[in-house]
Design a protein that fits this description.
Elements (H helix, E strand, L loop, with lengths): L1 H9 L4 E3 L19 E3 L12 E3 L9 E2 L7 E3 L6 E3 L2 E3 L14 H4 L20 H27 L2 H18 L3 H12 L3 H11 L4 H17 L4 H31 L24 H16 L3 H11 L1 H8 L5 H23 L4 E8 L2 E8 L2
Antiparallel strand pairs: 1-7, 2-3, 4-5, 5-6, 8-9
Length: about 375
């Protein structure tokens, strides 16, 4: 009986704890005296016993009812059933308790560790480690769901066509003298000490062993501290960059081995493709270095900063051509693969598909809305 009635009362507004000694209800209006309330003194396992009258009088006290040893039960004004002594009703956050005039700060405390944010969100009363654990579990589920959406958006027929067009264009450079001629012109007429110093800076952004863990750690830290607006944005950027790597790395590795291109001066066939004979047909530095800048550009709303970020995304690819580490076709394939991967991530953030149905539920209206994204 005690458990059932306590749960039933707990389904209303939230609970707060207060000492039973501080319970002092407001006086009822003299024109409407309170009724006489009789409460049984037995529980489910006890035979009927004497009752006790509470009221009438100038005040209406929450008086304990004797039971067998255990939590004392009290009758609260305006509440059906009995509840354990010391537990009092609070109708609104920040308002005095209905039985006792508790301090405003005490009334805001969360009872029983419950969380008004719903299941899966950490409560205010929980410890930092508990909140961190809950948020980490939610982040894992959210990331798995988003990565599945990224793969659905990437492995589609339109994306396959885009990659086929890029491979066809790169084949014209790689399997003719164009790649070799461009390399000779750049190395003889353009490259200098200044371009080497500039290139050494941008080449660093393509170091996967440095920046892939760095962006993943940045996204994880930002998501765990997303209550702070700046950290939330940084975390979103880091997670979207990491998802771009997760989507784009498998096809990049396949294209590197499948096309079989070589670095300048590495083999006798130079830039020409020999499937599965080498693994440099796509520049890994160009791909790794372009993903964060393209991600930032797609998160930017203004045209001028977006254009600047797209230009910066091409500099790691250019550094490989300047350093004579890749041919032009290989650098272009790396950048284009990064762009397509980031586009798939962006489509997941925007929503699946171009057509969606949204339910509408109003007090006097039920229906659905069709949304078509161009």
């Amino acid at each position: 009986m005690i458990l059932a009635l306590t749960v039933a009362v707990g389904c209303g507004p939230r609970w707060v704890f207060a000492p039973a000694a501080r319970s002092a209800p407001k006086a009822l209006a003299a024109s409407e005296p309170p009724p006489v309330v009789r409460e049984p003194s037995w529980t489910r396992d006890e035979p009927p016993g004497p009752t006790r009258e509470i009221g009438p009088g100038p005040t209406f006290a929450a008086e304990p009812i004797p039971t067998r040893p255990g939590p004392a039960m009290v009758r609260l004004p305006g509440v059906s059933g009995v509840v354990p002594a010391g537990v009092f009703w609070n109708s609104a956050p920040g308002a005095p308790a209905a039985c006792g005039g508790l301090a405003d700060e005490t009334a805001r405390q969360e009872p029983f560790g419950l969380n008004p944010g719903g299941f899966g969100a950490p409560s205010r009363g929980s410890s930092f480690s508990e909140r961190l654990s809950v948020r980490g579990a939610n982040l894992w589920r959210e990331t798995c769901r988003d990565v599945r959406g990224d793969y659905r958006n990437f492995y589609t027929w339109p994306v396959a066509c885009d990659l086929l067009y890029s491979v066809a264009g790169a084949s014209l450079l790689a399997n003719t003298s164009l790649d070799h001629d461009f390399r000779d012109w750049y190395q003889d007429d353009v490259r200098s000490r200044d371009t080497n110093r500039f290139s050494s800076f941008w080449k660093t952004f393509g170091e996967g062993e440095i920046f892939i863990p760095a962006w993943a750690g940045l996204g994880l830290a930002g998501k765990m501290l997303e209550d702070v607006p700046v950290y939330g944005t940084v975390g979103e950027f880091g997670m979207r960059t990491t998802r771009g790597y997760l989507v784009g790395v498998p096809p990049m590795l396949f294209m590197q081995y499948g096309l079989g291109g070589s670095r300048p001066g590495e083999t006798s066939h130079e830039s020409m493709w020999r499937p599965f004979e080498d693994n440099n047909a796509v520049s890994g530095h160009a791909f790794i270095g372009a993903v964060p800048f393209i991600t930032a550009a797609r998160m930017c709303d203004r045209a001028l900063p977006r254009a600047g970020l797209y230009i910066l995304s091409a500099l790691p690819a250019w550094s490989r051509v300047n350093d004579d580490s890749h041919y032009l076709s290989q650098a272009c394939l790396g950048w284009w693969l990064a762009y397509v991967a980031c586009r798939g991530v962006d489509q997941t953030e925007a929503g699946d598909g171009c057509v969606s149905f949204v339910p509408i539920a109003e007090p006097d209206t039920l229906g659905a809305m069709l949304i078509w994204r161009r």
